[in-house]
Structure of MarR family transcriptional regulator:
Amino acid sequence: MSTRTDLTANTDATTPLSLSERALWFAWKRAHEVLRTRIAEDVRSATGLSDPDIAILIHATDVDGTVRQNQLAVVLGWDRTRLSHQLTRMEERGLVIRRRVAGGVEVEVTDAGLEMVAAAQPVHAAAVRRHLIEPFTSVQVEHLRQALDRISAPDLI
Amino acid sequence: MSTRTDLTANTDATTPLSLSERALWFAWKRAHEVLRTRIAEDVRSATGLSDPDIAILIHATDVDGTVRQNQLAVVLGWDRTRLSHQLTRMEERGLVIRRRVAGGVEVEVTDAGLEMVAAAQPVHAAAVRRHLIEPFTSVQVEHLRQALDRISAPDLI
DNA sequence: CCTACAGTGTTGATATGTCAACACGCACGG
DNA sequence: CCGTGCGTGTTGACATATCAACACTGTAGG
């Protein structure tokens, strides 16, 4: 499926990146720094929630406020350790509670957590729109999404 | 320049993200998690250098091993604090040294740093190619780069 | 001279992420 | 019944990132 990439490039592991390869790599990292910083700033200053807080709360509320911890890890693409630490911190702040169930742990968003995510959603949506969506036309949005999916799962496309 | 984005979307700050907007946002975060993790694993297991190590060493060696600290911050899109802490750690490990100069600080890569980055470059290049470049054709690479630049600096395009 | 300001960098406290090691429960084949 | 894995989660040590506050230097205006 993935066809050859760059006529000036070489797949040999010892060949340095070509100009266009470097350009894409730097553009990727830069875009990520910029976007993450901008959205996190907007949301944090308005709601007191961090990036990882929002990610977890949104996915959990999407499925009615209760999720298997492992499912969260898979959906978010996080590893178990990271998620465990993050949930511990969020539990201490009263945003979620954890319950052992058959074959794992169930994460439930508390009422306080629901309130905070409800308050954060509009700010978050506006930030995402402003920084990620608005620079593009709807056709470009779709193309970009396809490209990103290709990165996440190159074998499935 | 940035034309209207999604006919089903609404710019009103209180409107939740549309399906296509959410899809792009999740695809973005997922792609980032996946790509960062894969490349960092490859490079770290082979060279002992972390993501931020590599970012700094590559940019510094690009300009003959010596850079103004502030220039590094600008190019990488990092803030001063983050860079300062990172350089402190790298200085402790003998990868760089810092020197006060007129109006700032000069960062120089040590011989040990040069050796490590030289050893890391091929591994890093191979990882970037495999995970970021190979899923795409050369035309797609160029389109993706333009899209990323648009995110970094929406006003300039 | 001197004062105020902008640019640059540091520090310490805290939040977040990673790694290696361990703990536990459950299924499967002896 | 007994191992032996495998999936799932936790823990502690450490690396990295962020925030608020401070320190230094040069420089422009009085």
